[in-house]
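Run log, item B.
One chain of 190 residues. Sequence copied directly from the ordering sheet:
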Amino acid sequence: MMKQSGNSHFKMPNLLLIAGNGRNVGKTFFACRIIEYFSKSAEITGLKVSPHFHPVNNADVLFENEHFIIVNESLINTKDSSLMLQAGAKQVFFAMVKPGFIAEAFKKLLPLLPETPIVCESVQLHEVVTPGLFLYVKREGDEIVKPESLKYSPLIVNNDGENFDFEVQNIQFENNRVILTPKKWESLKR
C-alpha cells in the first residue's frame, strides 16, 4: 500500500531501495542478485532511477518531457535496467530524471508501480520515498562520500570487490512488505 505522508514522502513498504557511495561500487550487481533470488518465488518489478540520460527505444517511452523520461525497459543490452530484466524481473521501469525533478517524475511513475515487491536502484529516490528497506552499498574500507544519504537510516552493505557482507536470504517479502529476517535484524541492533 503506497501512502503519502504529511511531509510529501511516499511510504512504500514493498520497495527495496539500493543507493550507493558512487559509481562502480556494486549497486546494480547487488540489485540483480536480489532480483534473481526472489524472482523464482515472486513477481519482482525492477526500477532504475538515474540523473544520467541514455538513448532509449522510442517504442518503450511511457512519458517524456524536458525534465525526465520514463521507459518500460524491453531491450537486452548492458544498461543497468536491462540487467535487472535479464536477472528475472517481470518488468523494469527506467526513469532518467534531471536533479530537482524527482518528485514530479515519481508522481508520473507511481500509477505504473505494482503493490508487489519492487527492487529499485536510485541515488535520489529516498528524497521522496520511504522504502520498506534502504540499503547503501559501498566498497569495503571506503569513506562515505554522500553522508546526506545517511539521514534516511540505510543499512550499510560493504562490497570487498567479490562479495557483499549482506546475504540476500536476510530479506523477506511478506504481505507486500519488504522486511529483514528476525535473525538479521537482531544482529544489526547490537
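Observations after the first pass:
- The first strand starts at residue 3 and ends at 4.
- The helical segments are 27-38, 80-86, 102-109, 182-189.
Flagged for discussion on Thursday.
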